[in-house]
């Protein structure tokens, strides 16, 4: 069975965005892009909430074609164009969307059906609201967190309304020179 891995930048105090969705505090550099790019390149399915998907759609399809495109822009743009995208949204529809499936209801059944299909990890990018929904349904199999050296004090938390403990097993950690620490966990489903 395929696994859903939540990929998220997070503040030391557990926020994934500022109070108004700000992400200007997130540290990314070539070292992080190269590291993340290796794992993402193996993925064949990207999972997004509507807001994150629309943000990605506004940038990535043409990012690699711009004159000032970085190596990361070129590589991620190519990956984005070929990866199968799944979007959790009650307001979007499947019309005119290439290689994209919209899930608007029966979330648990629809996600479990995708998890049963052949393929690699399903990477859930950002998307705090979608992440909260999937956590409530116990559908996330791992967390790939990039802890940024900042305390926001307020904002959008990664974990809200957790009904039962979620036990995690630490797979790897990595410290980046910019001060970000990667924590890679699997969810102990036992």
From TrEMBL:
Molecular function terms from GO: 5-amino-6-(5-phosphoribosylamino)uracil reductase activity
Any one GO biological process: riboflavin biosynthetic process
Protein name (Swiss-Prot/TrEMBL): Dihydrofolate reductase family protein
TM annotation in the entry: none
Species the sequence originates in: Solitalea agri
Taxonomic path: Bacteria, Pseudomonadati, Bacteroidota, Sphingobacteriia, Sphingobacteriales
InterPro entries listed in its UniProt record: DHFR-like_dom_sf, RibDG_C, Riboflavin_Biosynth_HTPR
Gene3D superfamilies: Dihydrofolate Reductase, subunit A (3.40.430.10)
Residue intervals of the Bacterial bifunctional deaminase-reductase C-terminal domain: 2-180
Matching PANTHER family: 2,5-DIAMINO-6-RIBOSYLAMINO-4(3H)-PYRIMIDINONE 5'-PHOSPHATE REDUCTASE (PTHR38011:SF11), DIHYDROFOLATE REDUCTASE FAMILY PROTEIN (AFU_ORTHOLOGUE AFUA_8G06820) (PTHR38011)
């Amino acid at each position: 069975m395929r696994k859903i891995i939540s990929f998220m930048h997070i503040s030391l105090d557990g926020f994934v965005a500022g109070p108004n969705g700000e992400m200007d505090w997130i540290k990314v550099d070539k070292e992080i892009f190269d590291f993340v790019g290796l794992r993402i390149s193996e993925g064949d399915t990207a999972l997004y909430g509507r807001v994150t998907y629309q943000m990605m759609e506004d940038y990535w399809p043409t990012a690699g074609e711009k004159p000032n495109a970085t190596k990361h822009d070129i590589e991620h743009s190519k990956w984005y164009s070929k990866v199968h995208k799944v979007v959790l949204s009650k307001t979007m529809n499947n019309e005119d969307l290439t290689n994209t499936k919209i899930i608007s209801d029966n979330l648990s059944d629809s996600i479990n059906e995708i998890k049963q299909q052949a393929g690699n990890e399903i990477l859930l990018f950002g998307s705090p609201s979608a992440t909260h929904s999937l956590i409530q349904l116990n559908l996330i199999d791992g967390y790939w967190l990039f802890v940024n050296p900042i305390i926001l004090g307020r904002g959008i938390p990664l974990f809200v309304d957790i009904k039962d403990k979620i036990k995690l097993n630490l797979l790897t950690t990595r410290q980046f020179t910019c001060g970000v620490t990667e924590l890679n966990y699997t969810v102990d489903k036992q």
